[in-house]
Amino acid sequence: CVIQMDTPGGLDTAMRDIVQLIVEARIPVVVYVSPAGARAASAGAFITMAGHVAAMAPNTAIGAASPVSIGSEGEVEMSETMQDKVVNDAAAYIRSIAESHGRNVEWAELAVREAVSATEQEALELNVIDIVSSDLDSLLSELDGWEVTLLRGAVVIIETDDVTIQYIDMSWMEDFLFAITDPNIAYVLLSLATLGLFVEISNPGLVFPGVAGGICLVLAFYSLGNLPVNIAGIILVVGAFGLFIAEVFTETFGLFTAGGITALVLGSLILFKGGPLFQVNPWLVGTIAFIIAAAIGFIITRVVVSHRRQPATGWEELIGKTAVVKAALTPEGMVLYKGERWTAVSEEGRIELDEKVVIDRVDSLKLYVRRLRQEAGN
Questions:
Q1: At 153, is the secondary structure helix, strand, or coil?
Q2: 0.85 exceeded by the pTM?
Q3: Which of 54, 158, 171, 359 is deepest in the core (most CB within 10 A)?
Q4: How many C-alpha atoms does 376 have within 13 Å on its Cβ side?
Protein backbone atom coordinates (compact mmCIF):
# COMPACT_ATOMS: atom_id res chain seq x y z
CA CYS A 1 0.00 0.00 0.00
CA VAL A 2 1.45 3.37 -1.05
CA ILE A 3 0.08 6.55 0.48
CA GLN A 4 0.84 9.53 -1.73
CA MET A 5 0.89 12.64 0.44
CA ASP A 6 1.17 16.40 0.20
CA THR A 7 0.03 18.20 3.34
CA PRO A 8 0.76 21.32 5.42
CA GLY A 9 -0.40 19.44 8.51
CA GLY A 10 -3.65 18.99 10.35
CA LEU A 11 -5.33 18.10 13.61
CA ASP A 12 -3.36 16.10 16.16
CA THR A 13 -6.23 13.67 16.70
CA ALA A 14 -6.57 12.91 12.99
CA MET A 15 -2.81 12.47 12.65
CA ARG A 16 -2.70 9.99 15.52
CA ASP A 17 -5.58 8.01 14.04
CA ILE A 18 -3.71 7.72 10.72
CA VAL A 19 -0.43 6.78 12.42
CA GLN A 20 -2.19 4.12 14.46
CA LEU A 21 -3.72 2.58 11.33
CA ILE A 22 -0.30 2.50 9.64
CA VAL A 23 1.45 1.01 12.66
CA GLU A 24 -1.16 -1.72 13.09
CA ALA A 25 -1.38 -2.53 9.37
CA ARG A 26 -0.87 -6.18 8.42
CA ILE A 27 0.74 -5.23 5.12
CA PRO A 28 3.67 -2.88 4.44
CA VAL A 29 2.64 0.76 4.14
CA VAL A 30 4.82 3.08 2.08
CA VAL A 31 4.35 6.82 2.60
CA TYR A 32 5.45 8.75 -0.48
CA VAL A 33 5.71 12.55 -0.32
CA SER A 34 4.97 13.61 -3.89
CA PRO A 35 4.71 15.07 -6.48
CA ALA A 36 7.60 17.50 -6.85
CA GLY A 37 6.90 20.56 -4.72
CA ALA A 38 4.90 18.60 -2.15
CA ARG A 39 5.58 18.69 1.58
CA ALA A 40 5.08 16.62 4.69
CA ALA A 41 4.88 19.41 7.22
CA SER A 42 3.72 19.26 10.82
CA ALA A 43 1.41 16.24 11.17
CA GLY A 44 2.63 15.05 7.77
CA ALA A 45 6.11 14.48 9.23
CA PHE A 46 4.67 12.10 11.84
CA ILE A 47 2.74 10.17 9.19
CA THR A 48 5.73 9.93 6.84
CA MET A 49 8.03 8.62 9.55
CA ALA A 50 5.35 6.12 10.63
CA GLY A 51 5.44 4.40 7.24
CA HIS A 52 7.23 1.07 7.01
CA VAL A 53 9.04 2.72 4.12
CA ALA A 54 9.33 6.52 3.91
CA ALA A 55 9.94 7.98 0.47
CA MET A 56 10.05 11.46 -1.03
CA ALA A 57 10.05 12.87 -4.55
CA PRO A 58 12.63 15.47 -5.67
CA ASN A 59 12.00 19.06 -4.59
CA THR A 60 9.95 18.13 -1.57
CA ALA A 61 10.33 18.88 2.14
CA ILE A 62 9.57 17.37 5.53
CA GLY A 63 9.53 18.69 9.09
CA ALA A 64 8.31 21.79 10.94
CA ALA A 65 6.34 19.56 13.29
CA SER A 66 6.01 21.89 16.28
CA PRO A 67 2.49 21.69 17.73
CA VAL A 68 0.34 24.82 17.81
CA SER A 69 -3.02 25.53 19.40
CA ILE A 70 -5.81 26.85 17.21
CA GLY A 71 -8.68 28.86 18.67
CA SER A 72 -11.51 30.98 17.35
CA GLU A 73 -9.08 33.77 16.41
CA GLY A 74 -6.43 31.56 14.84
CA GLU A 75 -3.25 30.45 16.59
CA VAL A 76 -3.58 30.75 20.35
CA GLU A 77 -0.62 31.34 22.63
CA MET A 78 -0.47 28.63 25.29
CA SER A 79 0.80 29.05 28.82
CA GLU A 80 4.38 27.93 29.40
CA THR A 81 3.26 24.86 31.34
CA MET A 82 0.75 23.84 28.69
CA GLN A 83 3.28 24.47 25.92
CA ASP A 84 5.80 22.21 27.67
CA LYS A 85 3.20 19.47 28.11
CA VAL A 86 2.11 19.54 24.47
CA VAL A 87 5.64 19.73 23.06
CA ASN A 88 7.00 17.00 25.32
CA ASP A 89 4.09 14.73 24.42
CA ALA A 90 4.58 15.30 20.68
CA ALA A 91 8.36 14.85 20.98
CA ALA A 92 7.95 11.55 22.80
CA TYR A 93 5.45 10.39 20.20
CA ILE A 94 7.66 11.14 17.20
CA ARG A 95 10.70 9.61 18.97
CA SER A 96 8.72 6.41 19.44
CA ILE A 97 7.74 6.40 15.77
CA ALA A 98 11.32 7.02 14.60
CA GLU A 99 12.78 4.36 16.91
CA SER A 100 10.32 1.72 15.72
CA HIS A 101 11.67 2.06 12.16
CA GLY A 102 15.32 2.73 13.01
CA ARG A 103 15.21 6.34 11.83
CA ASN A 104 16.97 9.46 13.11
CA VAL A 105 15.46 10.02 16.55
CA GLU A 106 17.42 13.21 17.26
CA TRP A 107 16.28 14.93 14.06
CA ALA A 108 12.69 13.83 14.63
CA GLU A 109 12.70 15.43 18.07
CA LEU A 110 14.23 18.64 16.68
CA ALA A 111 11.42 18.78 14.11
CA VAL A 112 9.01 19.02 17.04
CA ARG A 113 10.99 21.13 19.50
CA GLU A 114 12.66 23.54 17.06
CA ALA A 115 10.48 23.14 13.95
CA VAL A 116 13.44 22.12 11.77
CA SER A 117 12.78 21.00 8.20
CA ALA A 118 14.76 19.11 5.57
CA THR A 119 14.75 18.66 1.82
CA GLU A 120 14.40 15.18 0.39
CA GLN A 121 18.19 14.78 -0.02
CA GLU A 122 18.90 16.10 3.47
CA ALA A 123 16.24 13.79 4.88
CA LEU A 124 17.80 10.83 3.08
CA GLU A 125 21.30 11.67 4.35
CA LEU A 126 19.99 12.18 7.89
CA ASN A 127 18.24 8.79 7.85
CA VAL A 128 14.83 10.43 8.19
CA ILE A 129 13.50 8.68 5.08
CA ASP A 130 14.53 5.61 3.11
CA ILE A 131 14.16 6.45 -0.57
CA VAL A 132 14.14 9.40 -2.98
CA SER A 133 12.24 8.51 -6.16
CA SER A 134 11.20 10.72 -9.05
CA ASP A 135 7.85 9.00 -9.62
CA LEU A 136 5.71 6.09 -8.54
CA ASP A 137 7.12 3.66 -11.11
CA SER A 138 10.67 4.36 -9.95
CA LEU A 139 9.59 3.95 -6.35
CA LEU A 140 8.03 0.56 -7.04
CA SER A 141 11.21 -0.59 -8.78
CA GLU A 142 13.31 0.38 -5.76
CA LEU A 143 10.87 -1.28 -3.37
CA ASP A 144 11.15 -4.68 -5.04
CA GLY A 145 12.83 -7.00 -2.55
CA TRP A 146 12.66 -4.47 0.30
CA GLU A 147 12.36 -6.12 3.70
CA VAL A 148 10.15 -4.59 6.39
CA THR A 149 9.14 -5.65 9.88
CA LEU A 150 5.53 -5.28 10.91
CA LEU A 151 4.22 -4.49 14.39
CA ARG A 152 4.24 -8.01 15.79
CA GLY A 153 7.65 -8.90 14.43
CA ALA A 154 6.52 -10.43 11.16
CA VAL A 155 9.13 -9.88 8.45
CA VAL A 156 7.71 -9.19 5.00
CA ILE A 157 9.58 -8.86 1.71
CA ILE A 158 7.94 -6.44 -0.71
CA GLU A 159 7.56 -7.80 -4.22
CA THR A 160 6.68 -5.24 -6.89
CA ASP A 161 7.86 -7.03 -10.02
CA ASP A 162 5.03 -6.98 -12.61
CA VAL A 163 2.71 -5.47 -10.01
CA THR A 164 -0.53 -3.89 -11.22
CA ILE A 165 -1.10 -0.39 -9.85
CA GLN A 166 -4.61 0.27 -8.61
CA TYR A 167 -5.35 3.85 -7.65
CA ILE A 168 -7.88 4.32 -4.88
CA ASP A 169 -9.24 7.82 -5.24
CA MET A 170 -12.22 9.38 -3.60
CA SER A 171 -15.56 8.60 -5.26
CA TRP A 172 -17.53 11.41 -6.88
CA MET A 173 -19.73 11.52 -3.80
CA GLU A 174 -16.72 11.76 -1.49
CA ASP A 175 -15.29 14.50 -3.71
CA PHE A 176 -18.60 16.35 -3.53
CA LEU A 177 -18.94 16.01 0.24
CA PHE A 178 -15.31 17.07 0.67
CA ALA A 179 -15.91 20.12 -1.53
CA ILE A 180 -18.90 21.34 0.46
CA THR A 181 -17.02 21.15 3.76
CA ASP A 182 -15.48 24.48 2.86
CA PRO A 183 -16.59 27.43 5.03
CA ASN A 184 -17.51 29.54 2.01
CA ILE A 185 -19.50 26.72 0.37
CA ALA A 186 -21.24 25.95 3.67
CA TYR A 187 -22.20 29.60 3.98
CA VAL A 188 -23.55 29.74 0.42
CA LEU A 189 -25.63 26.60 1.04
CA LEU A 190 -27.03 28.03 4.26
CA SER A 191 -27.87 31.30 2.51
CA LEU A 192 -29.58 29.54 -0.40
CA ALA A 193 -31.57 27.44 2.06
CA THR A 194 -32.67 30.59 3.88
CA LEU A 195 -33.68 32.32 0.66
CA GLY A 196 -35.47 29.29 -0.80
CA LEU A 197 -37.50 28.61 2.34
CA PHE A 198 -38.33 32.30 2.69
CA VAL A 199 -39.67 32.44 -0.88
CA GLU A 200 -41.74 29.29 -0.32
CA ILE A 201 -43.22 30.54 2.96
CA SER A 202 -44.05 33.95 1.54
CA ASN A 203 -45.49 32.42 -1.67
CA PRO A 204 -47.02 29.04 -0.71
CA GLY A 205 -47.42 26.59 -3.55
CA LEU A 206 -44.38 27.49 -5.64
CA VAL A 207 -42.83 24.16 -4.52
CA PHE A 208 -39.46 24.52 -6.28
CA PRO A 209 -37.98 27.16 -3.91
CA GLY A 210 -39.06 25.08 -0.93
CA VAL A 211 -37.60 21.85 -2.30
CA ALA A 212 -34.35 23.52 -3.36
CA GLY A 213 -34.12 25.31 -0.02
CA GLY A 214 -34.69 22.08 1.88
CA ILE A 215 -31.95 20.26 -0.06
CA CYS A 216 -29.53 23.14 0.50
CA LEU A 217 -30.41 23.10 4.20
CA VAL A 218 -29.59 19.38 4.54
CA LEU A 219 -26.27 19.86 2.71
CA ALA A 220 -25.53 22.90 4.87
CA PHE A 221 -26.14 20.83 8.02
CA TYR A 222 -23.70 18.18 6.76
CA SER A 223 -21.10 20.81 5.96
CA LEU A 224 -21.54 22.63 9.27
CA GLY A 225 -21.24 19.31 11.11
CA ASN A 226 -17.69 18.95 9.79
CA LEU A 227 -16.58 22.50 10.57
CA PRO A 228 -15.84 24.34 13.84
CA VAL A 229 -19.15 26.19 14.10
CA ASN A 230 -19.72 29.14 16.41
CA ILE A 231 -23.13 28.72 18.06
CA ALA A 232 -23.59 32.49 18.36
CA GLY A 233 -23.16 32.80 14.59
CA ILE A 234 -25.77 30.10 13.95
CA ILE A 235 -28.24 31.82 16.30
CA LEU A 236 -27.78 35.14 14.50
CA VAL A 237 -28.29 33.57 11.06
CA VAL A 238 -31.41 31.69 12.19
CA GLY A 239 -32.67 34.86 13.88
CA ALA A 240 -32.18 36.74 10.61
CA PHE A 241 -34.36 34.17 8.85
CA GLY A 242 -37.06 34.65 11.49
CA LEU A 243 -36.98 38.43 11.02
CA PHE A 244 -37.32 38.04 7.25
CA ILE A 245 -40.42 35.87 7.71
CA ALA A 246 -41.87 38.33 10.23
CA GLU A 247 -41.46 41.15 7.71
CA VAL A 248 -43.82 39.40 5.29
CA PHE A 249 -46.65 39.10 7.80
CA THR A 250 -46.28 42.44 9.56
CA GLU A 251 -45.99 46.02 8.37
CA THR A 252 -42.79 47.34 9.92
CA PHE A 253 -41.72 49.42 6.91
CA GLY A 254 -38.51 47.40 6.51
CA LEU A 255 -37.39 47.42 10.15
CA PHE A 256 -37.42 43.63 10.43
CA THR A 257 -35.60 43.34 7.10
CA ALA A 258 -32.91 45.78 8.23
CA GLY A 259 -32.55 43.90 11.50
CA GLY A 260 -32.41 40.60 9.63
CA ILE A 261 -29.68 41.80 7.26
CA THR A 262 -27.66 43.11 10.21
CA ALA A 263 -28.03 39.80 12.06
CA LEU A 264 -27.14 37.89 8.88
CA VAL A 265 -23.94 39.85 8.29
CA LEU A 266 -22.80 39.66 11.92
CA GLY A 267 -23.66 35.96 12.14
CA SER A 268 -21.83 35.27 8.88
CA LEU A 269 -18.64 36.94 10.08
CA ILE A 270 -18.52 34.87 13.28
CA LEU A 271 -20.10 31.71 11.87
CA PHE A 272 -16.95 29.61 12.25
CA LYS A 273 -14.21 29.26 14.82
CA GLY A 274 -10.61 28.45 14.00
CA GLY A 275 -9.21 31.74 12.77
CA PRO A 276 -8.52 32.87 9.19
CA LEU A 277 -8.46 29.31 7.88
CA PHE A 278 -12.19 28.97 8.58
CA GLN A 279 -13.30 32.55 8.02
CA VAL A 280 -15.96 33.26 5.41
CA ASN A 281 -14.76 35.65 2.73
CA PRO A 282 -16.09 39.14 3.67
CA TRP A 283 -16.78 39.92 0.01
CA LEU A 284 -18.93 36.81 -0.19
CA VAL A 285 -20.80 37.89 2.94
CA GLY A 286 -21.48 41.30 1.42
CA THR A 287 -22.59 39.83 -1.90
CA ILE A 288 -24.94 37.31 -0.29
CA ALA A 289 -26.39 39.97 2.02
CA PHE A 290 -27.07 42.26 -0.95
CA ILE A 291 -28.71 39.48 -2.98
CA ILE A 292 -30.90 38.39 -0.08
CA ALA A 293 -31.86 41.99 0.73
CA ALA A 294 -32.78 42.64 -2.90
CA ALA A 295 -34.77 39.41 -3.18
CA ILE A 296 -36.62 40.02 0.07
CA GLY A 297 -37.31 43.63 -0.87
CA PHE A 298 -38.76 42.50 -4.20
CA ILE A 299 -40.92 39.81 -2.61
CA ILE A 300 -42.21 42.09 0.14
CA THR A 301 -43.03 44.79 -2.42
CA ARG A 302 -45.00 42.28 -4.47
CA VAL A 303 -46.84 41.06 -1.39
CA VAL A 304 -47.75 44.60 -0.30
CA VAL A 305 -48.92 45.54 -3.80
CA SER A 306 -51.01 42.40 -4.11
CA HIS A 307 -52.64 43.07 -0.75
CA ARG A 308 -53.53 46.63 -1.72
CA ARG A 309 -54.61 45.88 -5.29
CA GLN A 310 -58.30 45.59 -6.09
CA PRO A 311 -59.37 42.09 -7.08
CA ALA A 312 -58.54 41.50 -10.73
CA THR A 313 -60.63 38.41 -11.37
CA GLY A 314 -64.36 37.78 -11.73
CA TRP A 315 -67.05 40.44 -11.95
CA GLU A 316 -65.31 42.60 -9.35
CA GLU A 317 -62.88 43.74 -12.01
CA LEU A 318 -65.66 45.56 -13.84
CA ILE A 319 -66.97 47.59 -10.91
CA GLY A 320 -66.11 51.27 -11.25
CA LYS A 321 -64.76 50.92 -14.79
CA THR A 322 -65.84 53.11 -17.72
CA ALA A 323 -67.62 51.76 -20.81
CA VAL A 324 -69.01 53.36 -24.01
CA VAL A 325 -72.64 53.04 -25.11
CA LYS A 326 -72.93 51.29 -28.48
CA ALA A 327 -76.71 50.85 -28.48
CA ALA A 328 -78.82 53.45 -26.69
CA LEU A 329 -79.84 52.38 -23.20
CA THR A 330 -83.65 52.64 -23.01
CA PRO A 331 -82.99 51.55 -20.29
CA GLU A 332 -81.47 48.36 -21.77
CA GLY A 333 -78.95 48.46 -24.55
CA MET A 334 -75.34 47.63 -25.38
CA VAL A 335 -72.00 48.96 -24.10
CA LEU A 336 -68.40 48.32 -25.13
CA TYR A 337 -65.75 47.56 -22.49
CA LYS A 338 -62.17 46.58 -23.43
CA GLY A 339 -63.26 45.48 -26.90
CA GLU A 340 -66.14 43.34 -25.62
CA ARG A 341 -69.85 44.10 -26.02
CA TRP A 342 -72.04 43.71 -22.96
CA THR A 343 -75.76 43.95 -22.38
CA ALA A 344 -76.25 46.93 -20.10
CA VAL A 345 -79.12 48.46 -18.14
CA SER A 346 -79.22 52.15 -17.31
CA GLU A 347 -80.08 53.09 -13.75
CA GLU A 348 -80.63 56.73 -14.76
CA GLY A 349 -83.11 56.52 -17.64
CA ARG A 350 -82.16 56.82 -21.30
CA ILE A 351 -78.49 57.15 -22.21
CA GLU A 352 -77.60 57.94 -25.82
CA LEU A 353 -75.13 56.33 -28.23
CA ASP A 354 -71.39 56.98 -27.62
CA GLU A 355 -71.96 58.38 -24.14
CA LYS A 356 -69.64 57.12 -21.43
CA VAL A 357 -71.03 55.23 -18.47
CA VAL A 358 -69.70 53.85 -15.18
CA ILE A 359 -70.35 50.22 -14.25
CA ASP A 360 -71.97 49.97 -10.81
CA ARG A 361 -72.74 46.26 -10.57
CA VAL A 362 -73.01 43.02 -12.50
CA ASP A 363 -75.97 40.68 -12.37
CA SER A 364 -76.74 37.72 -14.64
CA LEU A 365 -74.26 38.85 -17.29
CA LYS A 366 -75.83 42.31 -17.39
CA LEU A 367 -73.99 45.48 -16.49
CA TYR A 368 -75.93 48.05 -14.48
CA VAL A 369 -74.52 51.45 -15.31
CA ARG A 370 -74.94 55.16 -14.74
CA ARG A 371 -73.98 58.17 -16.81
CA LEU A 372 -70.37 59.33 -16.37
CA ARG A 373 -70.24 62.74 -14.77
CA GLN A 374 -67.27 65.07 -14.67
CA GLU A 375 -67.27 65.21 -10.89
CA ALA A 376 -66.96 61.45 -10.74
CA GLY A 377 -63.29 61.85 -11.61
CA ASN A 378 -63.28 59.37 -14.52
A1: coil
A2: no
A3: 54
A4: 13
What count of Cα atoms within 13 Å lies in the side-chain half-sphere of residue 115?
5
pLDDT tens for each residue of the chain, 378 residues long: 899 999 988 878 889 999 999 999 989 999 999 999 999 999 999 999 999 999 999 999 999 988 876 544 445 566 777 788 889 999 999 999 999 999 999 999 999 999 999 999 999 999 999 999 999 999 999 999 899 988 878 888 988 888 888 888 878 888 888 888 888 999 899 888 988 888 887 777 778 888 999 999 999 989 888 888 888 888 998 888 888 888 777 766 678 888 888 998 898 888 887 666 678 888 988 898 888 888 877 777 766 665 555 454 456 778 888 999 988 888 899 998 887 888 899 988 888 888 999 989 888 778 999 988 765 444
Of 120, 137, 123, residue with least CA distance to 36: 120
Residues 6 or more apart whose Cβ sits within 8 Å of residue 30: 1, 2, 3, 51, 52, 53, 54, 55, 139, 143
Which of the residues are catalytic? 42, 85
Residue spans of alpha helices (H) in 250-319: 255-269, 282-308
- CA-based nearest residue to 196, from 185, 187, 209: 209
Beta strands in 278-373 (DSSP E): 322-327, 332-337, 340-346, 356-363, 366-371
**Beta carbons within 10 angstroms of residue 378's beta carbon:** 12
Distance CA 71, CA 147 (A): 43
CB 148 within 8 A of CB 103: no
> What gap in Å lies between CA 57 and CA 5, rounded to an integer?
10
Q: Output DSSP code: residue 171.
A: P
**DSSP letter at 351?**
B
The alpha helices in 101-180, defined as continuous H runs, are: 105-113, 120-125, 136-143, 172-180
Q: Closest Cα to residue 103, out of 48, 142, 25, 24?
A: 48
